[in-house]
Design brief:
Layout lengths: L4 E5 L3 H9 L4 E5 L14 H13 L3 E6 L8 H14 L3 E4 L2 H10 L5 E3 L8 H10 L3 E3 L6 H9 L4 E8 L11 H6 L16 E6 L5 E7 L6 E3 L4 H7 L3 E4 L6 H19 L8 H10 L5 E2 L25 E7 L4 E6 L3 E2 L3 E2 L8 E2 L3 E3 L2 E3 L1 E2 L4
Length: 374
C-alpha cells in the first residue's frame, strides 16, 4: 500500500483541530511573519508551540510556511522564526526564498525543507535542481497536467506534492505581479489583494480609435479546483502528498474538504471500487465554490470551464426559485430545490448581500426547516 499524505490548511487553532479530527496526515500553517497568507490569523510563538505539540500527540505532521521572498534586513528574523519552530519540533518548513532555503539546508540538515509552489517549479529541470540543492520535497506549480506530473515523479528522487482542491490563480504560481503593480501589495510578500477577482471589461481597440466590448464580468477569476475525478491517476502518477488550499477558509471548510478527500484516498488505497458520491460533491459545493468546480490544468486538453465570470466568491448551492416577494412584509415565496433551515445563510442571484433565514412558513404554519418534499 502506498503512503499518501493528505495535507490540510490551517489558519487558526480551530481549523487545526478540524483538520486533525477529520483525517489529515499533516497540516500547514504560518507564523505571524513571512508567510503567503498574512491576512490569516496565523500563530505567534506560544500558539506555534501549542499547535506543534497538539499534532505531535496525534501523529500528525506540521509544516511551517516561510514562503515569501525575504528582504536582506529581514533575514535574521526569518531564521530566528525557523529556528524556534525547529526547537518546538516542526516537521518541515515550506520556503520560497532560495537564500533562506540554502541557509536552512546547511545549518539544519535534519529538518526537511520543501520548495513552495511560489517557486514556480513546473518542469523536471526545476525539480532536479532542487534535488541538487538539498530540498526534501517540491510543491509543483498548479499549472501542470497529470501527464507532466507523472513524468516529473518518474524521473526524480525527491518527494512531489500537488494541490488537489481549492482556489486557483489566473497567473503562473509565484509569478503574478498584478497586485504589486496596481496596489503595492505583493503576492510574493504574502499581501495579495486579489485584483484578479474584480470585474473587468475586455475591449478591442480598432484602427479608427473606436472600441468594442468583447466580454465583461469577473473574467480573470478562476473556478476552484476539485480533483476527485483525477485522484486515482494522481496517486498512480507517484505524487507523495496531496495539498488542500485554504488557509483563509473556515473550520467548517477545512473539516468537510479534509474528510471527503480522506474518504476517497482511502477508497483507492484499499482497492475498493472508485465511485464518487454526488452528495459529497454537493457538500464540497455548499462549503465553498465559485460557480462550480473545474479540473484546473490537470487534463491534457484546454480547460474551457476555468473561469466563472458572474461572481468571484462563494456561490453555495442552488436552493430554488423565487415565485413572489412581499415588499411590505419582507416575505419571499420560493419553490425549493434543497432543504433549508432557520439560521441558514442565503443570497439571491445578481445580489451580493447575505441574509440569515429567521422565519420559515408553509401556509400559516411556522417551520424549523423546510424541504422540497413537504
Amino acid at each position: 500500500m502506498k503512503n499518501i499524505e493528505l495535507l490540510s490548511p490551517v489558519g487558526d487553532f480551530e481549523c487545526l483541530q478540524s483538520a486533525v479530527q477529520n483525517g489529515a496526515n499533516s497540516v500547514y500553517f504560518g507564523g505571524n511573519l513571512f508567510n503567503a497568507r498574512s491576512s490569516a490569523s496565523n500563530f505567534d510563538y506560544d500558539e506555534l508551540e501549542k499547535a506543534i505539540n497538539y499534532c505531535a500527540l496525534r501523529n500528525v505532521k506540521t509544516h511551517l510556511t516561510l514562503n515569501t521572498l525575504i528582504k536582506d534586513n529581514e533575514f535574521k528574523e526569518a531564521i530566528s522564526l525557523a529556528k524556534q519552530a525547529y526547537e518546538f519540533g516542526i516537521d518541515a518548513i515550506i520556503v520560497q526564498d532560495l537564500g533562506i532555503a540554502k541557509y536552512l539546508i546547511e545549518h539544519f540538515p535534519d529538518l526537511p525543507i520543501h520548495a513552495s509552489t511560489q517557486m514556480t517549479i513546473h518542469n523536471l529541470e526545476g525539480v532536479k535542481k532542487l534535488e541538487e540543492l538539498g530540498f526534501k520535497r517540491a510543491v509543483l506549480s498548479r499549472e501542470l497536467s497529470i501527464s507532466e506530473i507523472e513524468y516529473i515523479c518518474s524521473n526524480s528522487n525527491i518527494e512531489i506534492e500537488t494541490f488537489i482542491h481549492g482556489a486557483l490563480c489566473i497567473s503562473y504560481s509565484g509569478q503574478c505581479l498584478f497586485s504589486s503593480m496596481v496596489g503595492g501589495r505583493s503576492g510574493n510578500r504574502g499581501k495579495c489583494a486579489q485584483p484578479c477577482r474584480l470585474p473587468y471589461s475586455l475591449i478591442e481597440k480598432r484602427i479608427n480609435n473606436s472600441e468594442k466590448v468583447l466580454d465583461n464580468g469577473h473574467i480573470l477569476s478562476p473556478k476552484d479546483l476539485c480533483s476527485l475525478e483525477y485522484l486515482p491517476q494522481l496517486i498512480k502518477s507517484g505524487v507523495k502528498c496531496f495539498k488542500i488550499e485554504g488557509r483563509m477558509k473556515t473550520p467548517e471548510y477545512v473539516a468537510i474538504v479534509t474528510k471527503i478527500y480522506r474518504k476517497y484516498i482511502d477508497m483507492i488505497l484499499d482497492n475498493k471500487k472508485y465511485v464518487i458520491d454526488e452528495s459529497d460533491i454537493k457538500m464540497l459545493m455548499q462549503v465553498f465554490n465559485r460557480g462550480g468546480f473545474s479540473s484546473g490544468h490537470l487534463s491534457t486538453h484546454p480547460n474551457k470551464e476555468l473561469i466563472f465570470k458572474e461572481k468571484p466568491n462563494n456561490m453555495g448551492i442552488y436552493l430554488g426559485n423565487v415565485t413572489h416577494y412581499n415588499a411590505n412584509k419582507g416575505h419571499v415565496q420560493v419553490i425549493l430545490n434543497e432543504d433549508i433551515s432557520i439560521g441558514d445563510i442565503i443570497t439571491f442571484k445578481r445580489e451580493q448581500t447575505k441574509y440569515h433565514i429567521s422565519e420559515l412558513m408553509k401556509g400559516k404554519t411556522n417551520l424549523a426547516s423546510a424541504s422540497p418534499r413537504l
